Amino acid sequence: MADWIIDVVSWTLLLAGGAAGVIGGIGLLRFPDFYTRLHAAGVTETLCALAILLGLALQSGLNLATVKLIIILLFLLFTAPTATHALARAAMVDGVEPEVAEDDSEPTPGEPSSNT
Fold first, then answer.
1. Is residue 108 part of a domain?
2. Does residue 111 lie in a domain region?
3. Alpha-carbon distance 84 to 28, whole Å?
């Protein structure tokens, strides 16, 4: 009975990690500027690694492979946010400006306001 539960949890984590990777890839294509794309990549990388490596660790059981997967996971959890921060900082220093959405709350001159 316990093996069945471990398999269900493991496959759920593996599928969730894969789905997060696909959604993050779509975000990389759809987001408008460097900073939002960087955010999508950083969050996706961390979430995918967490879910997929935990799912693989559950599948492998308690052995040396599980210890290696946990070490890889810890390494990724420390380095991925650091790398994302370094990229964002380098872009800021280089002068990359984020896209700012126009504020649609105020009417442009000559247009009637919708508050009437």
1. no
2. no
3. 14
